[in-house]
Design goal:
- This protein has 276 residues and is α/β, with parallel strands linked by helices.
- It contains 10 helices and 12 strands.
- Helix 1 (20-31) crosses helix 9 (244-259), helix 5 packs across helix 6 (135-147) and helix 5 crosses helix 9.
- It is globular, with a radius of gyration of 19 Å.
- It binds NADP nicotinamide-adenine-dinucleotide phosphate.
């Protein structure tokens, strides 16, 4: 590789589990572009220094993942509106004059996956139930409200966390208990943004009370791909969308900025990432 090959990467601690290098590597090959995308293991104490040095070494930008999403936002020279609303960054682009712009593409990735997996889905069809109030839930909440969902029932184990989000996102968000009677009654959309059902994190035991056939259920978890939550929803007659596409779609805006071409999310890409 010559010195002017565009570089990008993903920063986290740990980073070995990240599928982003497979994702971006696939797109670089599929589009026949020069470039490289690498995993970077960086501790929080070193993040500011690393982000200052990377553009000097040819990096156009980086993704940031756990636990750096909030810290990266606080270090940014420019912040997109949606990253500010979500309170975390996952896509950083270095600026010609120094510093970087922080964006958050988790919400657009979530929505692109939902629309691709359920083309008939309409935001205005009815309330959404959002299980979880962590970092990913915050991006999903922003995307659902931005799309025009009339009400989001937000249910989280730690109620105070859900209440803090409702405070920020306004009156279309109502806080419920995870086991509230009728939590899912009349809901058009139900989203699992908890870690319940993740490989190694135990099963999914929430009652989903009132969930009706005809609702659309989607999980953010993609390992396993067919989660206990999706199975429970299907058993009640719901259509389901798995979480892998969110990971794939959230990567596309960064790739386009850094490598200069908009990539596609295809079945072959899904298979390549699953096989990795
Ligand atoms: P996080 O900030 O750690 O939040 C975890 C959430 O799960 C919190 O709401 C937490 O509730 C809840 N939770 C954990 N254990 C629970 C239990 N035993 N019972 C009930 N609730 C429980 O994590 P995150 O970053 O938001 O990620 C959430 C999930 O989304 C993860 O599985 C992650 O892999 C997935 N994700 C997927 C994508 C994608 O591209 N598909 C992107 C981002 C995240 P408390 O507030 O009470 O702790």
């Amino acid at each position: 590789m010559s010195g002017d090959v565009p570089l990008a990467g993903v920063i986290g601690d740990p980073i070995g589990h990240s599928r982003s290098p497979v994702l971006h590597g696939y797109w670089l090959r599929a589009l026949g572009l020069r470039g490289a995308y690498v995993p970077l293991h960086v501790r929080a104490d070193d993040l500011a220094q690393v982000l200052e040095a990377l553009p000097k070494a040819g990096f156009r930008g980086v993704n940031v993942t756990v636990p750096h999403k909030e810290l990266a936002l606080s270090l940014a020279a420019e912040v997109t509106e949606r990253a500010r609303r979500i309170g975390a960054a996952n896509t950083l682009t270095f600026l010609p004059g120094g510093g970087f712009e922080a964006d958050n593409t988790d919400g657009v990735g979530f929505m692109a996956n939902l629309r691709a997996g359920a083309p008939g889905w309409r935001p205005e069809a009815g309330p959404a139930v959002l299980l979880g109030a962590g970092g990913a839930a915050r991006a999903v909440l922003d995307a659902l409200l931005d799309a025009g969902v009339p009400e989001v029932r937000l249910a989280n184990r730690t109620r105070a966390r859900a209440e803090a989000l409702a405070e920020v996102f306004g009156p279309r968000v109502t806080v419920r208990a995870l086991d509230a009677p009728g939590l899912c009654a009349g809901a058009a959309t139900v989203v699992n943004a908890t870690t319940l059902g993740m490989d190694g994190a135990g099963g999914f035991s929430l009652p989903l009370d009132g969930l009706e056939a005809g609702a659309l259920a989607t999980d953010l978890i993609y390992a396993p791909l067919d989660t206990p939550f999706l199975q429970a929803a299907r058993a009640r007659g719901c259509a389901t969308v798995d979480g892998l596409g969110m990971l794939l779609h959230q990567g596309a805006p960064g790739f386009a900025r850094w490598f200069g071409a908009m990539p596609e999310v295809t079945e072959a890409l899904r298979e390549a990432v699953l096989a990795a």
